[in-house]
Design goal:
Blueprint (H helix, E strand, L loop, with lengths): L3 E5 L2 H14 L5 E5 L6 H11 L14 E4 L8 E5 L8 H4 L2 H5 L3 E5 L13 E8 L8 E7 L9
Parallel strand pairs: 2-5, 2-6, 4-5
Antiparallel strand pairs: 1-7, 3-4, 6-7
Helix pairs in contact: 1-2
Length: 154
C-alpha cells in the first residue's frame, strides 16, 4: 500500500486528523504511532480518543504503559499503550497486552519497542515528524495502512 502524507500545521488540524482516523477504526485495528520525542504521538492519540467519544483527561501511558478506555460513551473500546520503557519486545506478553486487545483498538506509541505491529493487516502506521525548524510549521504525518485499511485510509 502506498503512503499518504498530510501537513498538520496546528492543534486543530491534529484534532481533525484524529477524528478522520477515529471515523474509520474497527475493533482489532492498531494505530502504530511513530516519531521522536515531542513529535505529537500522545496528542494524536488524545484526538482519536476524543473523536471516539471519550470525555475527560487522557494521561500519557509512559509510566503505566497501558491505559484502557471502554466507557459506554466510546464507539469502540481502546487500549492506549506507550512502549517506550520496554527493554525487550517479549515484555509485551509479560504485561498481558493480548488480553487487553481482545475486541479493542490499540493506539501504540513507540511500537518498535514492542516488536512492531506493521505485519498485522489491521495496522495503520502513522509516522509523525516536526515540520519546519523546531516544529514551527506544525507536524507532518505519513500514514501507511495494512491490507485491512484498503479503501478506508484517512
Amino acid at each position: 500500500m502506498t503512503d499518504t502524507g498530510i501537513v498538520l500545521p496546528d492543534l486543530a488540524a491534529m484534532k481533525a486528523y484524529g477524528a478522520a482516523i477515529a471515523a474509520r477504526l474497527q475493533a482489532g485495528d492498531v494505530v502504530a504511532l511513530e516519531g521522536g520525542l515531542g513529535a505529537g504521538k500522545t496528542t494524536l492519540a488524545r484526538a482519536i480518543l476524543a473523536a471516539l467519544g471519550h470525555q475527560g483527561e487522557v494521561p500519557s501511558p509512559t509510566f503505566t504503559i497501558i491505559e484502557t478506555y471502554d466507557s459506554p460513551s466510546l464507539r469502540l473500546p481502546v487500549v492506549h499503550a506507550d512502549f517506550y520503557r520496554l527493554k525487550h519486545p517479549e515484555e509485551r506478553h509479560e504485561i498481558g497486552l493480548d488480553d487487553y486487545r481482545d475486541g479493542a483498538v490499540l493506539l501504540a506509541e513507540w511500537p518498535d519497542h514492542a516488536g512492531g505491529f506493521s505485519h498485522e493487516p489491521g495496522c495503520l502506521t502513522i509516522m509523525l515528524d516536526l515540520a519546519g525548524e523546531s516544529g514551527a510549521g506544525g507536524r507532518i504525518a505519513i500514514a501507511r495502512g495494512g491490507a485491512n485499511w484498503v479503501g478506508r485510509m484517512p
